Amino acid sequence: MKPTTLLAKTLVVALLAVPTFAQVAPTDEKVPCRNYRDVPDTWRERSARELSVADKKRLFFRFLAPILLRINELILEDRVRAKDLTERLAQGQSVTADDQAWLTKLAVKYKVLESTSQRLPSNAFAELLMRVDVVPPSLSLAQAASESGWGTSRFAAEGNSLFGQWTWGKGLKPAEQRTSALGDYRVAAFDSTAQAAYSYALNLNTERSYGDLRLKRAELRRQSLRIPGTVLAETLLHYSERGQAYVDDLKALIRNNRLNDADDAYLRHMAVIHIVAAGAKPR
User: Fold this and answer.
1) CB proximity list for 152: less than 8 A, separation 6 or greater
2) Residue 84 to residue 91: CA distance in whole angstroms
């Protein structure tokens, strides 16, 4: 297949799947890093300034897309298991105690239940499945680019904050914080980019402000239709104070960078790359 888009050209080696019979046994690789700040500091202070806009975008997408795809894989694994269990329970079949406990914990994580002492009622099965679902990678990539300035913002460098998530009383304090109006609000900080991306997906899948996104996604699923980022972007009027202008910018980012193909991408079985301390003795 000939790559025809920016994303395809950038990710063809890492993301496009190949037939099972064509795969070879992967060999893990170790990449040395002097310290954990090498990558963000180098990117923000030097590399992103020296690169062309096109190259900066390619590298940003290449770095983030596999993380987003892996998170979607994990969410789908939970969704498949939850769908199987809830269907069995709805039909009056029994499930193991471990399966019931797992389902309860999942319902708490996705804020369908308040605590694990509760039991998930049958009338909440549909709500749980509406929440345990993927976020189109095109939308995630566009929001990360918009919220972090292509990974160059202070919040991205200091706290792996790529998606503009807020928190109260902890995290990174904005330079011009309007405490009198909104309280001690801050930008959420994370130990890794993957944690930030997972928290972002969970945020869209649980918070009341994004109920329209979940309803639209469920409607597309019921009709067995593709779930494009541009369509779900239209539901994010409450993600930013900019409202419709923010939504329009997200759709333009997806369109101008040809990110739609990312919604059909998936990870190929490949070797694992381990980031290790430079000079560390091999094991």
Assistant:
1) 43, 44, 48
2) 11
